[in-house]
Amino acid sequence: MLIQIALLTLLAIVAVILIIDMIPMWKDWFGRIHIGRMRNTDEWGESITGLAVKWLNHTPTIKLTDQTRLIVIDMLRGNYSRSSIQHWQEAALLLGISEYLKQHEDKGVELAVTKYLEATFDRKGQWREKPKHVDGAILAYAVMKLSFVDTDRYKEALDYIWAMIKEHIGEDGTVEYRKSMKDYRYVDTVGFICPFLITYGLRYQVDACIDLSVKQIQTYEQHGMLPNYGIPCHAYQIDSDVPLGLYGWGRGLGWYAIGLIDAWNELPSGHQYKEELNNCVSRFAHAAIQFQQPSGNWNWTVTRKESITDSSATATLGWFMLQAASIPELTVDCSASAEHAVHYLMRVTRRNGAVDFSQGDTKDIGVYSNQFGILPFTQGFSVRMIQQYNVRKKNGTRGK
Q1: CA distances (Å), 142 to each of 45, 88, 149, 332, in order?
Q2: Cβ(342)–Cβ(40) under 8 Å?
Q3: Residue whose C-alpha is closest to residue 48's, from 384, 389, 397
Q4: Strand 243-247 and strand 358-359: pairing?
Q5: Angle 211-212-218 (CA atoms, 0-180°, nearest 5)?
């Protein structure tokens, strides 16, 4: 009798473990039924924007591991997922919603953003929980882009970000990804800090911010790009310029793209650095377009057509192309590239408006996720792109 009870208990435990392993697979399978059925860009924009607004204050759980078997062990250890979202993911959602609010008067969305701001900042305009890493800068940039809010009320928080970035400036005069990684420069950092530095520097007349932003971009272009192809490696060693990680990591191209294009966008015409960044934009546009696939996407390894498509790379590079199209010599090619990216993203959007097939979070230099699903970062940049894309389409205009 005791043996039978023990066997039944063991079978029950095994069944529970198997069910827990299967639940994420079932959820993905069910979510992908009738994927890509949006009829036009207006409908798609409305769908993905509504979900982004919902996620701003109620974000989905982000997986920490790529494990798909015996995940109950990671759950028990607290290593399977995180309920809190990273600053760069929050920032993307906020940037997308900000673009939406530029085109629409929507009190409900404004209330959702206000709720988020109240949860993020105290009454003095300081962070309730101060960012410890430089990815906080892209969130600060997203806050500064809100047009319906007097964002100067958060100057204390913005000042903190500038002070924190200065603490991360290394011996070569560029910004470190982490203080514990002083010898490396990551492509991610270009996207994290450069748009904030330009915006903060212009608003509060801090020239050192603008100088640092341009230096970060130019130095990465000088030391972190694949010769003859113009695509970035994941990171490089500052003393030897030895490349680290992968040349052609899709989201790495995306990080460089958004750091460059938003920094360039924030500079006014006639600024001393405008033409320099203009040339950077032109070089990178030509480099990235050659790796866009016929279906409109970029893959997670952009140099391999056999690798899996990555919606996060496609959304960020699509945003870059949409902005770069305002440069006359790039208008035709970049406009076409952005349009192809939009139609790819429509085809990988679930019924509930979630853009699918984004690569999971990177574990380390050269250690990339093999899981592809939903990512708030991708959602935000898809919203950002489609809002401006639809306005330009209706107005028959190109460029800013």
Answers
A1: 20, 10, 12, 29
A2: no
A3: 384
A4: unpaired
A5: 90
Q: What is residue 187's three-state secondary structure?
A: helix
In angstroms, the CA 359 to CA 365 distance is: 15
Q: Which residues of 161-186 are buried (b: 16+ CB within 10 A; e: fewer)?
A: bbebbeebebeeebbbbeeeeeebbb
List phi, psi (to 5°) of 84: -85, 150
Residue type, 400: K
d(CA 310, CA 290): 16
Q: What's the pLDDT tens digit per position in 120-164? A: 999 999 999 999 999 999 999 999 999 999 999 999 999 999 999
Asked if 374 and 356 touch (Cβ cutoff 8 Å), the reply is: yes
Structural domain boundaries of the chain? 41-81+291-400
Q: What is the pLDDT of residues 277-292, one digit of tens each?
A: 999 999 999 999 999 9
